[in-house]
Amino acid sequence: MDELTTEGSALPIAPVKEPPNPELSSVKRLLTLLDKTAKSSRTYGAANPVAQKFFQQLFEGLTAHLATYSKLAFLVQRSELYFNGEVVYQAEQGSSTESVAFKLYSDGIRELTFLEGLPAEDLSFLLDSLWGSLDPNEEHDDDIVTRLWAKNLSTITVVTAEEIAKASTGGDVFALPMAGTMEAPESSLRDLLDRERAKARKEKGPGGDGVNVSGDKPAGGAAVGGASRFQSGHVGYDVTETELAELAKEIKAESTRDNTNYLLDMLTAILASEKSAAILTKLLDLWGNVLDSLAAQGKWVVLDSVLGLLHVTAEVRPDLGEAQKAQLAALLDSLGRPERMKMIEAYLNRTPGATTEGLPAVLLSMTSAAVPALCALLGNLETPAHQAIAAEALEALAKDQPDHLLRGLSDRRPRYVKNLLTILLKWNDPRFADSIEKLVRYPDIQVRKEVIRAIGIFRPNGNGMKLIAFMHDAEESVRFAALKLLMTGQYKASYSAWSPLISTDTFMDRTLSEKRAVFLAMRATSGDEVIPYFESLFTEWSWTNRKKKEELAALAAEALGKLASPAALIALELGQKKGGAPVRQACASALAQAQRQQQLKQAAS
After folding, report:
1. Which one, of 535, 530, 520, 531, lies nearest residue 579 by Cα?
2. Which of 54, 64, 343, 562 has the fewest CB atoms inside 10 Å of its own CB, making it the most exposed?
3. Do β-strands 462-463 and 491-492 pair in parallel, antiparallel, or remain unpaired?
4. Tell me: the pLDDT tens digits for 339-348?
5. Are 488 and 524 within 8 A, CB to CB?
6. Rounded CA separation 597/585 (Å)
7. 3-state SS class at 410
8. Which residue numbers in the chain have pLDDT < 50?
9. For 187, which DSSP code?
10. What residue segments make up the domains of the chain, in order of their start?
11. What gap in Å lies between CA 382 and CA 193, rounded to an integer?
């Protein structure tokens, strides 16, 4: 197809994105609720509060949809439901035989329609028929269509495979809804079949309607003479080679299903339905072994699902005795016990490329009692990605009890200490500053840098003595990190705090950039207190290290020029008169800069 273009063959016009179809969105939401209702009903029973809650949401949503659109019809395939030619429901992989689509399809239903005015009792009867949960005291045929036909519901209609087979002139009748072999303007298979049936009656003439030769009930709609739109389904139908292949595929998938999930499904069913207190007690003991096994195997997603089940057990089973409730609470509280943390640690450290999907949720499911074991896990994990997950859990669980993390700062493992510092910095609590400042001489360079960053966060101003202590650090990058904070002017310190540093001969051997930073930090923290020292540099004559001392004097002049106080200007004038040639030149340049700054300030004021 040719692209749309603007006039003069300019750039193509982008196609307008179609707005979302509100009816289709509503249908998908309803089918999500239908699936949840069916699953909760199968697992816990239709009378369970959770199942009833989902049923009520489904009924209210369906009522609102029918009030707007009057009708809702689905075409049924083995694993999907179609609405207006689009897939709106698809069975989960590995569970197709338990899906709504398969249950309808396997009983011969090819179209299901809900009509406006649907009462809750009719919807409930349909779901009970679908999953065989009708009153056990009454006799019921296992066939869904027969149950619905006997009930003669006026707001729910179906089209069966038998009806299609009788109306079809050939081909694969089971693929009829999707194959397009009976295309017509009607909105559903029911309309299509009614038209075909009317056409057949017209061709037969008078007496062509009513009971068929075999004596079966007519398969027409309830709107004609009050007859039901359901048929018994006893006739059956042929199975194509394609369908046989699909069945064989499903049988094979079932035979190779995951044994863990199969066992968990059985345990869940027992937990949801068992009445014996003794058996429930044994079962809850068994769940503790299940948690251990899943943790040891690294099945985090399954473990998270099991934990979710155990968390809602008390709600789903309000009839549990006090002993079972206490046992369940103890089971959840013991999730973070050290032995289980060791299992998690062992799996992550020994498994190359170990998956972590679901692990964050598992760790966050623990209580604050797990904090010591989580600290041990963080310290022993070898991979940074795994450490980050444990640190995230600690950040959430240990905020109200940071003592375990503060004690861990004395650990000799730099990686562990850095992770703890990261968590403490995120909490941003100034109370931690004293504990962190004790690490000023920690052997690891990165840890010392983190300590300086922490000081800047927890003590953004005030006394700069702690930062000046880093001036004697053996690592230049650590010293620069501290100087960067001292040069901000937010910290104060007397000249005597700097004197031990600048009075040593080794200070002159430091790089030019560091000496400049030190003088600027002295000016920012000590103000005019540094002027006598700077003046001494201007006027001192020496035959040893003369070049380095002149370099220091030039840096002092630069610092005084930026200070620009009256006392600083006097000192620069003195240096301009009595210093050597390089010093006089530096003082003159700094004096000019200071005067320009004063002029700018006066102009601004």
Report:
1. 535
2. 64
3. parallel
4. 999 999 999 9
5. yes
6. 19
7. coil
8. 1-14, 134, 136, 169-186, 207-236
9. S
10. 26-243, 494-605
11. 68
